[in-house]
Amino acid sequence: MRLFFIAPLAALALSACSLTPPLVKPAAPIPAAYAEVSAPGMGGTAADLGWRQMLLDARLQRLVDIALENNRDLRVASLNVEAVRAQYQIQDAGRFPAIGANAGGVRQRGADALTQNQFSAGIAMSAFEIDLFGRLRSLSDAAFARYLATQQGQRAAHMALIGAVADAYLEQRLAEEQLALARQTLLDWRQALVLTQRLHGAQQGSGLDVAQAQGQAATAEADVQARERASLLSRNNLELLLGAPPPADLPAGRALDGQPVLTRLPAGLPSDLLARRPDILQAEHALVAANAEIGAARAAFFPRLSLTASLGFASPELGDLFRGGARSWSFAPQVTQPLFQGGQLRAELQLSRLRKDVAVLQYEQAIQTAFREVRDGLAGSATYGQQIAAQERVVTAAQQRQRLSQLRYDAGQDSRLELLDAQRQSYAAQQALLDVRRDQFKSAVALYKALGGGLEE
Predict the structure, then answer these.
(1) Is 117 helix (H, G, I), strand (E, B) or coil?
(2) 21-30, 141-150, 198-207 — which one is most confidently predicted on average?
(3) Which of 286, 282, 280, 283 shows the shortest CA–CA distance to 451?
(4) 34 φψ region: left (φ > 0), alpha (ψ -120 to 50), beta (else)
(5) 320 vs 416, higher pLDDT
(6) What is the mean pLDDT of residues 227-246?
């Protein structure tokens, strides 16, 4: 049995023209080079570094592994990719004929009191649209581009998760180290309070000294509570990102001064972002989809040719159904030309053009945002090292002042107030140094993401 009408129709469908306008991507609205100076002596770009090369802390690497396996947002992003792929397959299937087999029989009695039988069997194609002007092809191209955009969205979510886990881990390390410093300071200041109370009891100190020492100890106690709260909150945030409680056999983590994150990163050229950043590629695919939808809207103005056809057998007797004389066929083409729809087609075409204009702006905005994020990261890379060095000198000077103030106070040359001020300054300088170190590593992680890193191990 030959479907003599399918082959020419398939050839006709494949030769359909397209009304989709040529896509001309706008020029990247960014300079050709970064004004900031990146790390010298390093070739390539940070996107070539696997995240294990970027995140040097073994504990952090294990946490990232757990998050990539269990994080719910990343799972949702992966499922969205599968859902959009299914939508594309549904849309693309409309370009091909739907052929089905059928068999049936009718037994009826007419006004002449005669009973008649009719049996049939065959294959049929129902309302297959021959895509003369590329409407279905344009819709399929748009659906495929949106599928690719969703894929890039999933890759962006992958990168964002790695960065979020690194940031949460750095916050946890900061909270733990600041808590340890606060507890040690509280212990020291409580011992100083006990000594001050003993001196006051021996008539060698004033009540003012006792009050000052009590206030100092209370301040340290309040700070300990604040640091404990910060530690708990950072742990909760990290567990949410992991999607599961952290295991008990995690390797030991590095301290903030133990370089848990690589900070010297090669930036490459701004043009690298166009091929490296998933969010830019996602916006580009969205632009392709919007442009293809213009072609579909244009094609809606032209006639649609659809075809219903069948080929099989029909006979009043079931036993004679498949004999040569029972062969039957039908061929029913139909042409539909829109005449008046109240301006709907023009409005749909205008809407598709507006959506493309929006997609162009979103594409340009994605490029500009990426460029700004890289420049922010480069600014941090260029300044944090010097800031930390300066803050370390602040800590050294404050600790020296505290030691000298303690000696002068013990010798009766300085008041208790001078010693308290020196102790507070030293404590604040050490806490600030921890803050700056955390900020430096978070800035490096942000630069790594901004350059398109994090997709490879």
Answers:
(1) strand
(2) 141-150
(3) 280
(4) beta
(5) 416
(6) 91
Contacts of 244 (CB under 8 A, 6+ apart): 66, 70
Task: Give the sign of the dihedral formed by CA 292, CA 296, CA 299, CA 305.
Answer: positive
- Distance, in Å, from the CA atom of 457 to the CA atom of 75, rounded to the nearest integer, reads 19
Specify the pLDDT at position 228.
93
Report how far residue 101's alpha carbon sits from residue 211's, in angstroms, rounded to the nearest whole number.
Answer: 96
Q: Which of 341, 335, 334, 333 is nearest to 297 (CA)?
A: 341
Is 60 within 8 Å of 302 (Cβ atoms)? no
Q: In this model, does residue 3 exceed pLDDT 80?
A: no
Instruction: Write out the two tokens for 2.
Output: 């030959």
Calculate mean pLDDT across residues 249-268: 87
Distance from the Cα of residue 401 to its chain's centroid? 49
pLDDT in tens, 16-50: 577 888 888 888 888 877 876 544 444 578 888 88
With a CB cutoff of 8 Å and minimum separation 6, the contacts of 400 are: none
Distance CA 157, CA 371 (A): 19
pTM: 0.83
Q: Which structure tokens are listed for 110?
A: 């007419």
Give dist(CA 138, CA 294) in Å, integer: 8
309: CB partners within 8 A, 6+ apart: 5, 124, 125, 329, 330, 331, 332
Distance CA 428, CA 438 (A): 15
Rg (CA), the chain: 37
Phi and psi at residue 319, in whole multiples of 5°?
Answer: -70, -25
> In whole angstroms, what is the distance from residue 190 CA to residue 103 CA?
94
Q: Are strands 99-109 and 115-130 parallel, antiparallel or unpaired?
A: antiparallel
